[in-house]
Amino acid sequence: xxxxxxxxxxxxxxxxxxxxxxxxxxxxxxxxxxxxxxxxxxxxxxxxxxxxxxxxxxxxxxxxxxxxxxxxxxxxxxxxxxxxxxxxxxxxxxxxxxxxxxxxxxxxxxxxxxxxxxxxxxxxxxxxxxxxxxxxxxxxxxxxxxxxxxxxxxxxxxxxxxxxxxxxxxxxxxxxxxxxxxxxxxxxxxxxxxxxxxxxxxxxxxxxxxxxxxxxxxxxxxxxxxxxxxxxxxxxxxxxxxxxxxxxxxxxxxxxxxxxxxxxxxxxxxxxxxxxxxxxxxxxxxxxxxxxxxxxxxxxxxxxxxxxxxxxxxxxxxxxxxxx
Length: 324
Ligand SMILES: *Cc1c(COP(=O)(O)O)cnc(C)c1O
Ligand code: SF4
Fold this sequence. Notes:
Layout (H helix, E strand, L loop, with lengths): L3 E2 L10 H6 L10 H4 L7 E2 L19 E5 L2 E5 L26 H12 L6 E5 L8 H12 L6 E6 L1 H4 L6 H7 L4 E7 L8 H12 L3 E7 L8 H13 L2 E7 L14 H11 L10 E6 L4 E4 L5 E5 L2 E5 L5 E4 L4
Parallel strand pairs: 4-5, 5-6, 6-7, 7-8, 8-9, 9-10
Antiparallel strand pairs: 1-2, 3-4, 10-11, 12-13, 13-14
Helix pairs in contact: 4-6, 8-9
């Protein structure tokens, strides 16, 4: 396959918390690998693209991505506490990209206000928890005042990568009558430090419902034991594992992508050995904006019209009779 050298225009930024959770050299440590460039490996492949999941084609006004009828993304920040090497929006965030102006924020809010089918608003970016509690509070005030918006969800890496930002003031801004879901981005149990536990606990105490999202990353967490450890620890910290994403086709990230087959093998290993409440759904964002689909392994084989063979978690097959 033809390869061209990636232009490494992505910023490098790590926090003290991340530095403290790194235990070994950047070439082997599962936390360091997520942030520290390994440029020798970062080739751009022809299948990789600037806008891997097709945000642009579903952007009706600046800051909004409206792909599904009942929910929108509202990209309220263009920077993050840290920059992940595999980031699917790496070309749209970081230094040199544009922050939303107040007019653009107002325009996005107006779009949400005027579309009564929008039931949920997902704050994303960049990282929404980079905003000051005052800025964030103003946005959430606006959203909560819209009757048809029943749920606000925040996708963030801050509680994991920069837990010091989860302050009393921020937690106060998140304490609402309407449901606030916080989906934390975390990929390895080594990222769960004492400060991270405190931050998650405070968010939960503020009434937020906590979910996690992880990316299946080659050489970081692509084995059942590593993921089992992560999902068990998160569940015990009141964080429900939500999605395990197959990595997107972002430029220069092929060294992080394994095969979907391997991902499915790992999910099969987790089934049965790990509590159902600790199992995330393995997801693929179809390139170019067709949305997310589960990559759950198939346990069901149709052998005859309406008659099935079902595989159990140990791999044994059983027949399921046809209906009448
Ligand atoms: C991922 C995504 C969502 C959220 O999808 P869920 O399956 O509800 O988590 C919503 N809108 C867009 C554009 C997305 O990319
Ligand atoms: S925190 Fe999220 S948006 Fe920011 S660099 Fe990491 S993956 Fe990208």
